[in-house]
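TL;DR need structure tokens for one chain.
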Amino acid sequence: FGSTFFNVQRVSEQRVPGRCMLACSRNGVHFLHPKTHEVQMFLPLNEILSTRRTAAEGNFPCLDIKYGDLMRQKITRLETEQSADIENLVGQYISITNSLKAYSTTHSQN
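>> reply
TL;DR here they are.
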């Protein structure tokens, strides 16, 4: 499957009620039903603009994911103890993707 999985206690999206499993891969972030593993929501890497670790009520660790484009942006909050790990992994995938784009752009012009 090529993904790293994380447990998420709550997501601020109506499409993802309650707990979920998060699958991060080179394609993006999949929000999966914890029992059926059905994809409830998907964020492609090229739509993720930024991530930010924060804390919710009661000092519970959270991760805010900002996604969309310049005209329309949205933030989804994940409540999870693994917010730092998710933020680091998504950041690495985005960095690699941007490096590959830059490489292919410079080499296709030559």
